[in-house]
Amino acid sequence: MLTATLVSLTGTRVSAIALPWFVLATSGSASRTGLVAFCEMAPYVLVKALTGPLVDRAGPRVVSWTTDLVSAAAAVVVPLLHARGALSLPLLLALVALIGAARGPGDLAKEIMVPEAADRARVPLERATGITGVNERLASTVGPAVGGAVVALLGPLTALLLNAGCFALGSLIVAVALPRGMGRAAAGEPLHSGEPAPSGYWRRFGEGFAFLRGEPLLLTVIVMVGVTNLLDAAYAGVLVPVWARDSGGGPAVIGLTSAVGSCAAIGGSLIAAAVASRMRRRPVFFAGFLLAGAPRFLVLAFGAPLWVVLAVFAVGGFGAGFLNPIIGAISFERVPRRLLGRVNALGNATAWAGIPLGGLLAGAAVGAFGLAPVLLVGGVVYFLTTNLAGLRPEWREMDRHRGRAASAPPPVAARAEAGGGAP
Fold it and tell me: What is the DSSP track for 110-153?
């Protein structure tokens, strides 16, 4: 499971450098670069939100390998059409949208197989999410480093072919190499005893929505991460490429900064996997955001030399390494297995809802005000979001269900009393 996820995510990280650089190099337009990012992420978020019931019903395994295969096919078409001189901007946007639409349910399917993989491997849930975080950070290290090098040496279209190969390999691993019987459709038992199991797409969808609405801690995490994801998308999709172009570093420096941050994040995730079960989640969580957020924006805004930028990325990456293991453990502890597809689809889609707008808004803002003011505003908003959200009372719930996977939801009265209501 880790290998399949690593391969697919590595391809995605390669594409995250190759595609924006291809658009920026061929058009010279930050706005078009943001538009391409929007056309990939908007379908990603929308389709991911709506396919949760289908993933639960069809089974995450079959959804994972089929959607990865679709992504691979669409990624291959981009360089082929460009080589024939037939790649117009509308056609590029349509292909990018198809890749995003396929990636959404594919990523969701891999994510909700993590608890089952942990059970089969007899690995504690919190450690499993930590190892998964290491895996994600490793992909974020290898992908940008390889992507930056391939783009610099062979061009962005070759990197897109590499991306397609990664998706195809990930599809093969999930389809063939996982244990027999893993990733089957969720059982149709009712959420509460004495109630009929829901049937039909919209009833299943509504069941996931009702559960998520009754979880104030999950909702607060989702809203806060939604804002930071928007800012991160603007940063990675437009602000860093424009900074790299203006500073003369080019795609190689994009890969270098991403790789440095991700290497440090691997260290943070390894520590989280080893000792997270003995640490209080709340202070670690917000300290991680403090290190990983605003400093990255500010160091670019003030034109710091490259060694300072790399140092800030390293410290921020270390802090970021603790975040996803904590978020993943909280989700798997509080959401029943049979609802993972629906609830995680809605939660992830909500948290990612701002990502399509991130590149679009950043491209327009840079065109209107310049790079440095946009970076300063982004850093200030990031700092305020992560610190003000920490004042809400529901964060006290972070350790309540620690270390055990959810089999049934906690009583409604306990959820309302502990959280004080949804934001």
Answer: HHHTHHHHHHHHT--HHHHHHHHHHHHHHHHHHHHHHHHHHHHH
CA–CA dist 345, 331 (Å, integer)? 12
| pLDDT of amino acid 69 | 93
- Mean pLDDT across the chain: 81
CB 398 within 8 A of CB 283: no
Closest CA to 32 of 233, 252, 237: 237
DSSP state letter for 208: H
Contact 211, 191 (CB under 8 A): yes
Confirm if 72 and 168 have CB atoms less than 8 A apart: yes
Stated pTM of the model: 0.67
CA gap 313, 293 in Å, rounded: 10
Q: Is the dihedral of CA 296, 297, 298, 299 positive or negative?
A: positive
Tokens 């798997």 map to which residue? 332
CA–CA dist 365, 5 (Å, integer): 34
For residue 397, how many other CB atoms are within 10 A of its CB?
23
CA nearest neighbour of 191 among 179, 178, 204: 204
Q: How far is CA 251 from CA 18, 89, 244, 274, 336, in A?
A: 8, 22, 7, 35, 43
Q: Decide: 325 and 123 in contact? Cβ < 8 Å.
A: no
Rounded CA gap, 406 and 333, in Å? 5
Nearest C-alpha neighbor of 357 from the set 28, 144, 45: 45
Domains (range + CATH), the chain: 2-177+201-419 (1.20.1250.20)
As given in the structure block, the two tokens for residue 213 are 């609405």
Give the CA distances from residue 84 to residues 57, 92, 187, 220, in Å, rounded to whole numbers and listed in that order: 41, 13, 49, 49
Greatest C-alpha distance within the chain: 66
- Residue 239: exposure state from Cβ atoms within 10 A (0-12, 13-18, ≥19): buried
Residue pointed to by tokens 């069809």:
58
pLDDT digits (tens, 9 = 90+) for 219-276: 888 888 899 999 998 998 889 988 988 888 777 788 788 878 878 888 888 887 777 6
